[in-house]
Amino acid sequence: xxxxxxxxxxxxxxxxxxxxxxxxxxxxxxxxxxxxxxxxxxxxxxxxxxxxxxxxxxxxxxxxxxxxxxxxxxxxxxxxxxxxxxxxxxxxxxxxxxxxxxxxxxxxxxxxxxxxxxxxxxxxxxxxxxxxxxxxxxxxxxxxxxxxxxxxxxxxxxxxxxxxxxxxxxxxxxxxxxxxxxxxxxxxxxxxxxxxxxxxxxxxxxxxxxxxxxxxxxxxxxxxxxxxxxxxxxxxxxxxxxxxxxxxxxxxxxxxxxxxxxxxxxxxxxxxxxxxxxxxxxxxxxxxxxxxxxxxxxxxxxxxxxxxxxxxxxxxxxxxxxxxxxxxxxxxxxxxxxxxxxxxxxxxxxxxxxxxxxxxxxxxxxxxxxxxxxxxxxxxxxxxxxxxxxxxxxxxxxxxxxxxxxxxxxxxxxxxxxxxxxxxxxxxxxxxxxxxxxxxxxxxxxxxxxxxxxxxxxxxxxxxxxxxxxxxxxxxxxxxxxxxxxxx
Length: 488
What we know:
Blueprint: H1 6-15, H2 21-39, E1 42-45, H3 47-62, E2 74-78, H4 105-112, E3 116-121, E4 141-142, E5 145-149, H5 155-162, E6 168-172, H6 179-185, E7 188-191, E8 212-216, H7 219-229, E9 258-262, H8 271-286, E10 290-294, H9 302-317, H10 336-347, H11 350-363, H12 368-390, E11 395-399, H13 410-413, H14 415-420, H15 426-431, E12 435-442, E13 448-454, H16 460-474
Helix pairs in contact: 2-3, 7-16, 9-11, 9-12
């Protein structure tokens, strides 16, 4: 079967000299400049850097030099991934004008492989949100319907990839921020095992949850990007050497594979979303996989555990933004304390303030044992629950999100309801597991639905193969919905 990967297709066009990398890059830059008015996927375009890399790729092609699989491929980075000499704001007023003096490890890797950076992508402020609407630049729009959100917090990357303004992108996933926007936009989003991909240069939200991963148009593309960035990094104390290449595992027979389906994951899932997921499970059965229904009661603790621990870590991580060391500083103040208070009040948005306050509260002397310590204990319970589940199944299947993409301004009307939509994604981050969202059809509103597959730690080769087999077998129109680019 012909793969859906756009990265190999572009690579083939470049190597056959049907198009030059400079021509290709100019086409993507033109699309980004014109379509960004509609989608708001990018907060900063980088044409000078993109064309410089493209010229180097053309030189290597002319000289017959061997290229990496990602050489010449137009891509984007979420705006919380540090880029030396390029403004990186986390889409927050408090970091407007901040230009890092070093590259994040993932960008350093891709830059060395001659990936072409089209620009920095929109996101929820400091990655706190589920719709991309907490961005100080305004929210990214969904290419399937611009009256719907692209999802969050990596909404700009998902919008750019789904809207053909980039071939792939890197986002960060703290509680579902790669998988949820991928589901909303009908594309693929991979959250790797915690420690598989370096976090050095990722501006922190919650350090024990954050993980960088690819957002792509196909599983094949996701495997190629994962293999490129899943490297041990001595600059990251949580980096692991256990990550294994995944691309070579694609296409392996999954007959006899046990796919676990926890019933708790389907509680509260909209009926049209549930129907699409059930159809996806039937595809797996047709491939010879065995569906194993089971119960996982501890999932009910996921949301409170996540929001207590993540907000506690955020309140600590965001303490560095005080107007003294870097970032914005208020102009009128009487003394240092007033300057810090006014800088943070003016620089942070409402959602960031809300999470800082919650995190500070649960870490305070009177409430530490009642909330933070108890949440840490329950985190261990969830880790053990997943270990027990993987003793009886190879992969877990679940919804990515209980619904399709929200209408614009939905989160402003009901913040708590928005938090509840994270129920299917946060358990993966709590346990440090890999998870992938793959499009599996459409809801009754004609918006994409995502199937989430979850694997044991460092099982990316098997997980990506399971997703790849579904993608190849389903042949759903959702995979073709965004394949309208000028180079195809």
